[in-house]
Structure formats: C-alpha cells, structure tokens
Amino acid sequence: MGAKNMTQSVSTSELFLSRQALIFLKAAETRNLSVTGQFFGLTQSAVSRAMIDWEKQWGCSLFDRTSRPISLTAEGKVLQQELNKQLEEFLNLAEEIKQKNRLKPILRIGCVESMSVDLLPQLIIRLKSKTKRLTTVIATSNSLYRQLREGQLDIIISSDPSAELSGLKQVLIFQEGSLIVLPKRFEGDPCCESWQGLQFCGIPFIKYHHATGGGKLNDVFFRSLGISLTNQLEVDSNSTMLSLIAEGVGWTISRVSTILQNKARCLIPC
To answer: Residue 71: helix, strand or coil by DSSP?
Structure first.
C-alpha cells in the first residue's frame, strides 16, 4: 500500500494500527520528523520520543539518524513493508464493509393495529440485519394508504383489500375469519344465535370507523345481508373497541387477529 492511501485514511487506519505505528509509517514516508509532527499535530520532539519508544518495543533501531534526511534501517524497511501490506488489506476490507452498509435500504413500514403485536415484531426481527434503518408506523388502513401514496411509507400491512393503488404490488399475506364479540355476560345467551336477536339484545352495535379496514369489511358484509344496524359509537382502535365491549357498552364484529392481540382481556366471542 502507498503511504498516500494511509494519509487519506488515518481515522480508519487507527481502527487497525496504533498511533505509534501510524507515526512510524508517516516518518518513513517523509523522512522528516518535523513534517510528520505537523501532520499529526505534534511537535518534532514528541515525534522523536514516540519513535524512540517504538524502537524500544521492537528491540532494534528502525531509523538511521546519522544522515539527513533520516532513513530506515534494514529492520525498519521490513517493518514498513509489512505494516503497509496489512494496512492496505484492512482498508480494503473497511471500504467493502462501508459499501455494503450503504447498499442496505432504509425501509419504512406501516401496519394496522391488529398486526402490530404478532406479525410486525417478527417482520422487524427478520429485516433488522438487512436494512440500514427501519421505521414502523401504526395507523388505520386509510391513513396507511394515504402515506404510501404520498411516499411517506414503502410497505404497508393493511386489512383493507378493496383499495386499488395503480403501479403498486399487492400481496395477500393471509385470510382470517370474523367473530361476533360481546361482553362476557352474554355467554350462552340465545340472542347470539341470530342477527335479529343481536339487534334486540339490549346493547348497541359499536361500529369500526368507516376509514379502517375493519370498518370497510363490516360495511360490505352487512350490505350483502341487507342488514342495517343503528350505532351511536364509532371507533378506529381495536384496544378501545374491546375495552368498551368488556365494559358492557356494546358488541361488534371483529377479526381473529384482533382477539389474539388482546387475549388478556376478558372477552368471550359468541
């Protein structure tokens, strides 16, 4: 390796060689202790002391100081060649590592709440070593689609299959069934056995916000059955929805993943 490369990569070289070794290589290149000192921000006497200590560690003279400019002894030349060889290999490796790191993508992932506990953490674990930086956002399907269109996200995990985004690839991850979710006190109640019974069970239907994937799925489902349910409450959070149901405020239709994510709650799907 040429001394020029060492000079251009001192900070990286210090990861591999000691300060004394780098001073030695620079002094061997310049053959001038004063110039070497200027390069490292040291006085000439400080460089001289460093090289004397360096020679003591090697147990031999590395510089011939009887002539001007100074020159390397036979031992010094061997050491210079070996250090330059090893340093060049190290700098090449360091550059390769930096290039690979630059090639790793910066990835921004958006995910619906129902997938944020089981699916998203596993995805983060698998992608962590393959990305330079990984950012995740939890939001409703409608908000995620908007952020994707605006270039704020690179990938979204959504529960709304109805959205059409031209020029973007959509992949089906999995399908899941829906469940009627009621307060625990309705366990075994015959009102759960029919839609008519649910409409007159004494508590209202709690609607998922129309902009959420769950809300859109439920709207399509009820339209297909020709059922119209009056509702006073509309929420866009699974945890809020299930907390309200646990308090006996109402009932809803939700997905299996939502129930699994909130399995600690005292809810009985009917």
So the answer is: strand
Q: Write out pLDDT tens, residues 157-167.
A: 887 766 666 66
Q: Is-contact 23 47, C-beta < 8 A?
A: yes
**Under a CB-based contact definition with an 8 Å cutoff, are residues 184 and 270 in contact?**
no
Contacts of 69 (CB under 8 A, 6+ apart): 31, 32
Q: CA-CA distance, 76 to 71, in Å (whole number)?
A: 9
What's the mean per-residue pLDDT of the chain?
Answer: 83
Of 264, 250, 254, 257, which Cα lies nearest the Cα of 183? 250
Whose CA is closest to 208, among 229, 227, 187? 229
Structure-token pair, residue 195: 């839609």
At 244, the amino acid letter reads L
Q: What is the pLDDT of residue 1?
A: 36
Side-chain-side CA neighbours of 117 within 13 Å: the count stands at: 12
Closest CA to 65 of 78, 81, 48, 50: 48
**What is d(CA 162, CA 164) in angstroms, rounded to the nearest whole number?**
6
CB–CB of 137/109 below 8 Å?
Answer: yes
